[in-house]
Design brief:
Structural class: alpha+beta
CATH class of the domain at 86-307: Alpha Beta
Strand content: 15-25%
Number of helices: 27
CATH architecture of the domain at 86-307: Alpha-Beta Barrel
Distance between the termini: 39 Å
Largest sheet: 10 strands, mixed
Radius of gyration: 25 Å
């Protein structure tokens, strides 16, 4: 194992006692601790059996997410931690009391080590009049600044930097400010930012239409504006009706839509250009196709998704939480780099089955701090099982990432996880009972029949009571795709109910891929490079620390095929077979094609970054999100190394060597240093790039 991999395990996942001495003697001891904790959820007579099965799965490539590895079985040493990686806040309603209530809840959540997501477009726009206060509001971005500082403070005290996601509706009047927020040095750096993109907006862009920027209006505000909704057509230039996550205090029509005041209209293309320009320069905002998300949601009948976890692979309802796990695909490649290389599908399916049970058991060990979070995860038992090492496994199989063969392999891996996972979901429901929501009754509404007309054809009417398990399996768009392959399985799930509402998700897996995966490629990604620098966070150090890393497939190739093979500094793959590719050598459309192949079978979402070269022309870049929309994705993000704006986690040494950073000394003198050169500052050594980044982001005070 690479020294960097062992180092990450030791710093992030190895259990220590209160005096800092290791409790886990080695990685196998870490696995034993986790397997024992998860097995203790089983009936006492079966615990030893499942302990052995869980240990087997862990050694076969099942890797629970970081919070599970760190905290399962560790209660005696750190009782106030969670096994859950990601959550979503309760709805942030437009009142001071609610905003600061959610700030407090977020602080408690971040303290446990879990990340958190929020939607902030529920807050009224800047300069809107607040009648109760007799003043004008400072807008949602100003409140986001408060959440940002809270996260910074908690993570600085706890040694683990917090993770937050802010989502924002593309139709909010302050959308341009949200898009441009990260152009300001040090602002909102504890947040990932993503826009909630609707089908209506995408169609407005395609047609060249204007796009209204609007926010909900109350009865009192209608009177102030002298607007009567009795003659709605008369006021179509001032009022429109939208689906909105909050209806309390606003004007709502018979089908649940909220009246929104139009603040102004802008060309949809102008807004689109602002989005693409910002993501080209600053890699944000990300892109969440929220209508697609809700259309394909297994819990379509009881949830309205408006926010995601910090990396975007889980769209969650208010107080939603998801536990994650990934299977290391390289562990199933037999005879790598040969003409007889193949993937062991039977062993893979067995690991999926056992791992599904392991993740289901984590629900009982969730450790979430808020009762609303605990109720939500117990009621639905959703989790996200995915994979890591796709790029590395493809290379071992001799397949080029982005090729048609690689797309077909990605789809098959995702489909096998889905099918075997739902088989396990049925088995567990028969043995232990389905998720509680499956046995709940839901009353059919006009809205439900409008979006699922097949229910009317099946004889359902407004006011009928229908079990959750029927709505989940028979009328979920995703579950019906499962039924197209195994109809009897879905029929049984509609009768028994599933153990969980969601099964799959593809997370970024950064540190577990580097540590427990020995630097296999992250999640669904190709390897970033085959020799690169990874910037890691050290407790107590303000700048990131660079670590020299080689890809798993490069080391495997050197071990099995050619001991002298090394990537050339200028032409990385010169000495390697042409199927050794890196992230920025894959065409943007190929990145999207691979993601789309997996998304068909992933019932939550996918954290995927489209890495592009620094020098990619904007004209070639600007249509990436349009292509993602055309392929039916739920969202995506991009990354272009831009040294003037930020430092990435993964960096090629040649990029740093070619970038000059300027520092102004106390006497006014300017020092110019290449990004990979070392500088001593504040008693520590840093690369110039990482020090510049830390200073700019406010960890030492602004430049």
């Amino acid at each position: 194992m690479q020294s960097a991999s062992l180092d990450i395990w030791e710093k992030k996942y190895r259990l220590l006692n209160k005096t800092g001495e290791p409790v886990d003697k080695n990685i196998d001891a870490t696995y034993q601790r986790v397997a024992r904790a998860l097995a203790e959820v089983e009936d006492e007579k079966n615990q030893d059996y499942w302990y052995q099965k869980f240990i087997w799965a862990l050694h076969q490539g099942a890797i629970p997410a970081g919070r599970i590895i760190s905290n399962a079985g560790a209660k005696a040493y750190k009782s106030a931690t969670s096994t859950i990686n990601c959550t979503v806040a309760g709805t942030v309603e437009d009142s001071i009391d609610t905003i600061f209530e959610k700030l407090h809840e977020a602080g408690l959540t971040l303290k446990t080590g879990a990340g958190i997501g929020y939607e902030f477009s529920t807050l009224r726009p800047k300069d809107a009049y607040v009648s109760g206060a007799g003043a004008r509001t400072s807008g949602p971005l100003s409140f986001m600044d408060i959440f940002d500082k809270m996260c910074f403070t908690i993570s600085s005290a706890g040694g683990r930097r917090g993770a937050q996601m802010a989502t924002f509706d593309v139709g909010h009047p302050d959308v341009f400010e949200f898009i441009q927020a990260k152009r300001e040095d040090g602002r909102l750096r504890q947040f990932n930012l993503s826009l909630l993109i609707t089908d209506d907006f995408m169609q407005a862009v395609e047609k060249g239409d204007d796009w209204p920027l609007a926010f909900p209006i109350s009865e009192a505000e209608l009177q102030i504006e002298n607007i009567s909704l009795d003659d709605a057509d008369k006021y179509s230039d001032k009022i429109l009706w939208r689906n909105w996550p909050v209806s309390k205090g606003y004007v709502v029509n018979d089908i649940g839509k909220v009246a929104c005041k139009i603040y102004r209209k802008v060309p949809a293309q102008q807004l689109w250009d602002a989005i693409m320009s910002a993501t080209y320069d600053y890699a944000e905002p990300g892109f969440i196709l929220i209508d697609q998300y809700n259309q394909m949601n297994n819990n379509w009948f009881c949830e309205n998704i408006r926010a995601t976890n910090p990396c975007g692979e889980q769209g969650l309802p208010p107080y939603g939480a998801c536990l994650l796990g990934s299977i290391n695909l390289v562990r199933f490649v037999d005879n790598p780099f040969t003409d007889t290389a193949e993937f062991n599908w039977s062993r893979f399916r067995e690991v999926v089955n056992v791992f599904t049970r392991m993740l289901d058991n984590v629900v009982e060990l969730n450790g979430l701090p808020l009762p609303e979070q605990r109720e939500e995860i117990i009621r639905k038992r959703r989790h996200g099982l995915g994979f890591l090492g796709l790029g590395s496994a493809l290379t071992l199989l001799g397949l080029t990432y982005g090729s048609k063969a690689s797309v077909a392999f990605t789809e098959k891996v995702s489909r096998e996880i889905a099918l075997e996972g739902w088989r396990a979901g049925l088995e567990l429901a028969i043995e232990k009972g389905p998720a509680p929501i499956m046995e709940e009754d839901f009353i059919v509404s006009e809205g439900m029949l409008a979006i699922r007309p097949e229910m009317t054809a099946d004889g359902y009417s407004v006011g009928d009571a229908v079990k959750g398990k029927v709505l989940h399996s028979r009328y979920s768009r995703y579950m019906q795709k499962i039924a197209s392959v195994e109809p009897e399985l879905v029929k049984a799930l509609s009768e028994v109910g599933a153990r969980f509402t969601h099964h799959s998700s593809l997370a970024p897996t950064g540190t577990i891929a580097l540590s427990l995966g020995n630097n296999v490629s992250n999640g669904i990604e190709p390897s970033f490079a085959h020799h690169y620098t990874r910037n890691i966070i050290r407790e107590g150090k303000k700048s990131k620390e660079p670590v020299d890393v080689f890809s798993y497939e490069l080391l495997a190739y050197k071990t099995n095929i050619n001991a002298s093979a090394m990537p050339d500094a200028e032409q990385e793959n010169q000495q390697l077979p042409n199927y050794f590719v890196s992230a920025d050598s894959v065409l943007p459309e190929q990145h999207v094609d691979v993601q789309a192949a997996a998304q068909q079978w992933v019932d939550s979402s996918i954290s995927k970054t489209i890495n592009v070269p620094t020098d990619i022309p904007y004209e070639k870049f600007k249509n990436i999100y349009s292509y993602a929309y055309s392929k039916g994705l739920k969202g995506c993000t991009t990354f272009r190394f831009n040294p003037e704006a930020f430092q990435g986690v993964l960096v090629k040494d040649k990029d740093l060597a070619n970038t000059l950073y300027q520092f102004t000394l106390d006497d006014g003198a300017i020092v110019e240093v290449r990004g990979n050169e070392e500088i001593e500052y504040d008693g520590e050594k840093h690369t110039a790039a990482n020090l510049y980044d830390a200073l700019k982001e406010g960890y030492y005070g602004k430049l």
